[in-house]
Amino acid sequence: MIHVTKYFSTLSPGADIDPDADFVYDYYTLRVGGLVFAGVIVFLSIFLLAGGSAVCDFFSVIE
C-alpha cells in the first residue's frame, strides 16, 4: 500500500505539500483511487453475474 501511495503522490499535479499542515486535500489521488475501486467492483460484479449461470447448470445436472 505504501508503494501505491508513493506512486500516486508523484503523479499529483497539485501544489507542494506542507508537512506541518493538519490535513491536505489531494483530490487527484482521491479521484484516481475512486475510479480504480469502481473499475474493480464493476469487473467483479460482471464476473460474478456471468459465472453464476455455470454454477446453476452444474447443480441441476447433479440432481
From TrEMBL:
<keyword id="KW-0406">Ion transport</keyword>
<keyword id="KW-1133">Transmembrane helix</keyword>
<dbReference type="GO" id="GO:0043269">
    <property type="term" value="P:regulation of monoatomic ion transport"/>
</dbReference>
<comment type="similarity">
    <text>Belongs to the FXYD family.</text>
</comment>
<dbReference type="GO" id="GO:0016020">
    <property type="term" value="C:membrane"/>
</dbReference>
<feature type="transmembrane region" description="Helical">
    <location>
        <begin position="35"/>
        <end position="62"/>
    </location>
</feature>
<dbReference type="GO" id="GO:0099106">
    <property type="term" value="F:ion channel regulator activity"/>
</dbReference>
<keyword id="KW-0812">Transmembrane</keyword>
<dbReference type="InterPro" id="IPR000272">
    <property type="entry name" value="Ion-transport_regulator_FXYD"/>
</dbReference>
<dbReference type="Pfam" id="PF02038">
    <property type="entry name" value="ATP1G1_PLM_MAT8"/>
</dbReference>
<keyword id="KW-0472">Membrane</keyword>
<protein>
    <recommendedName>
        <fullName>FXYD domain-containing ion transport regulator</fullName>
    </recommendedName>
</protein>
<keyword id="KW-0813">Transport</keyword>
<dbReference type="GO" id="GO:0006811">
    <property type="term" value="P:monoatomic ion transport"/>
</dbReference>
